[in-house]
Amino acid sequence: MFVRLKEIEIGFENVEGVKVPAEYVSILCMDGIKNFRRSFQNDEEGLVMLRGTYAERIILKIEKSAKGKLISNGGNEIFQRLTRYHDIVDIELKYSDGVEETIRADWEDATKGGEENLLQKNSFDDKENLIIEIGKGI
Fold first, then answer.
1. Would you give per-residue pLDDT tens digits along the chain (138 residues)?
2. Are 133 and 125 in contact (CB under 8 A)?
């Protein structure tokens, strides 16, 4: 079944995010989709569970035409934000039928504070489109 992708929303480690209309996304590939459950201690709630879906590998290509047009909810232009940091935690997919799903990115901590992902690589192709790759062996 095919459903048109309307928009994606990229979530960052610092709870900042940016909405990207599908017209600016030319490639979105997610492989190794798995469900997960992780527990952690919360000072107010005690033991809590984080559950969801993650992708072992993500490849995202954002067209050069988006440059200067999309601003994150933290006030950053999308190309500057995405090339300055390596901290995508998830991508929310929003479909034309109203369905939404969030896919978390695989993460390997580059810092003790969990602010940078060693598995995320950002680059540009020969037409200055932004390529984001997340996963082991990418």
1. 789 999 999 999 988 999 999 999 999 999 999 998 888 777 788 888 788 999 999 999 999 999 999 999 999 999 999 889 999 999 999 999 999 999 999 988 877 666 889 999 999 999 999 999 999 987
2. no
